[in-house]
Design a protein that fits this description.
single chain; alpha/beta; 6-stranded mixed β-sheet; 4-stranded parallel β-sheet; 16 helices; 18% strand; binds pyridoxal-5'-phosphate; Trp_synth_b_CS; tryptophan biosynthesis; aromatic amino acid biosynthesis; lyase
């Protein structure tokens, strides 16, 4: 039986993936392809990773039985509390893994791209932890929109470099980071923040995030005697929290995997980030995947109320899962996500990130059976979104 988990030797999941990179990056990427699995599977590496995930990031995160929410939707609902991770979301699982890998590769300088700043903060955090130089590329427009995260990165010792080309957002920041890597091939490691980019990044990031589903399995087994839920729901920007939440269930066909994309103002509104529905195969940032693009292949600027889902592509693993029908793609609008966020706050006393609220919104739109066991990946906490929530409270949104 073939496995959904692993790409082939060239980094392909079905027809998606690969490493479409300029000649100048070949050396860096080939080095990483050759080294990552051996390093990650090394016993001393695993031990150090486990220690930091436990003592620094705060793992394992709880699997919480949300009784009042479950009553509301008529089934059993568990929340995987990635919102309780250090720095407020799942992203630190990946940056801890990659900083240890960079260390093993002898790299002294770390670069990253960031949109809303969450990945930038998670990267700046682990660079401080390890005393490594950190340069974060961020669109000029995002720097203005996300002042608190820019301040966090600076306080953590990172240099934030504005990307001033194009739309001055995430896509442009990523282009700047790639350019930096080309110019600094020997001493620099590029920490990509999701299951996107050239092979081996999608596989490497999925493995670092897979701790989420490893814990879910163990925790469900303890709580219910059965390690398999009937459904796992996660939101998808690039797809890293979903990849992590799905990973150890990918080869259990009985577990239904529901990926929720941001429909923004509506899938057909022209203002959305519903990549799988609207996207066509194309190449972005080093891999072949589904991509929102115009007839002549120009990348379409996405829209979502949540900055973390505002990406025109998805990781190649997800494109493959959707194309083969292994995962089902749902979507939630800005409005549905807002309603779901306030609903969770009132019912369970948990203020979720706007991204995670898309996964919670899907809980409301699906039909459940009383004996279903549904796990929702609560990818992050809502502190960063209070400005949006305040606008809602003041009836301005
Ligand atoms: C960044 C982010 C996401 C989206 O990224 P994925 O790679 O799709 O997981 C989702 N939730 C939160 C809280 C985030 O910060």
């Amino acid at each position: 039986m073939s496995s959904y988990k692993y790409p082939d030797a060239h980094g392909y999941y079905g027809r998606f993936g690969g490493a479409y990179i300029p000649e100048m990056l070949q050396k860096n990427v080939t080095e990483l392809q050759a080294a990552y699995l051996e390093i990650m599977q090394d016993e001393a590496f695993q031990k150090e990773l486990d220690r930091l995930l436990h003592d620094y990031a705060g793992r394992p995160t709880p699997l919480y039985l949300a009784e009042r929410l479950g009553q509301q939707v008529g089934t059993t609902v568990y929340l995987k509390r990635e919102d309780l991770c250090h720095t407020g979301a799942h992203k630190v699982n990946n940056t801890i893994g990659q900083i240890l890998l960079a260390e093993r590769l002898g790299k002294k300088r770390i670069i990253a791209e960031t949109g809303a700043g969450q990945h930038g903060v998670a990267t700046a955090t682990v660079c401080a932890l390890k005393g490594l130089e950190c340069i974060v590329y961020m669109g000029e427009k995002d720097i203005q929109r996300q002042a608190p995260n820019v301040a966090r990165m600076k306080m953590l010792g990172a240099t934030v470099v504005p990307a001033t080309s194009g739309s001055k957002t995430l896509k442009d920041a990523t282009n700047e980071a790639i350019r930096d890597w080309i110019n600094n091939p020997n001493d620099t490691h590029y920490i990509i923040g999701s299951v996107v980019g050239p092979h081996p990044y999608p596989d490497m990031v999925a493995r670092f995030q897979s701790v989420i589903s490893a814990e879910i399995k163990e925790q469900l087994k303890t709580k219910t005697g059965n390690e398999l839920p009937t459904h796992v729901i996660a939101c998808v920007g690039g797809g890293s929290n979903a990849a992590g939440a799905f990973y150890h269930f990918l080869d259990d066909a009985a577990v239904k995997l529901l990926a929720v994309e941001a429909a923004g103002c509506g899938v057909d509104s022209g203002k959305s980030a519903a990549t799988s529905v609207l996207g066509r195969p194309g190449i972005l940032h080093g891999s072949k995947s589904l991509l929102m693009q115009t007839e002549d292949g120009q990348v379409v600027e996405p829209h979502s109320i949540s900055a973390g889902l505002d990406y025109p592509g998805i990781g190649p693993l997800h494109a493959h899962l959707f194309e083969t029908g292994r995962a089902t793609v749902l979507n939630a609008t800005d409005e549905e996500a807002l309603v779901a966020a306030f609903n969770l706050a009132k019912l369970e006393g948990i203020i979720p990130a706007l991204e995670s609220s898309h996964a919670l919104a899907a809980l409301q739109t699906q039909q459940w059976k009383p004996d279903d066991v549904v796990v929702v990946c609560l990818s992050g906490r809502g502190d960063k979104d209070m400005e949006t929530y305040m606008a809602r409270l003041e009836n301005k949104l």
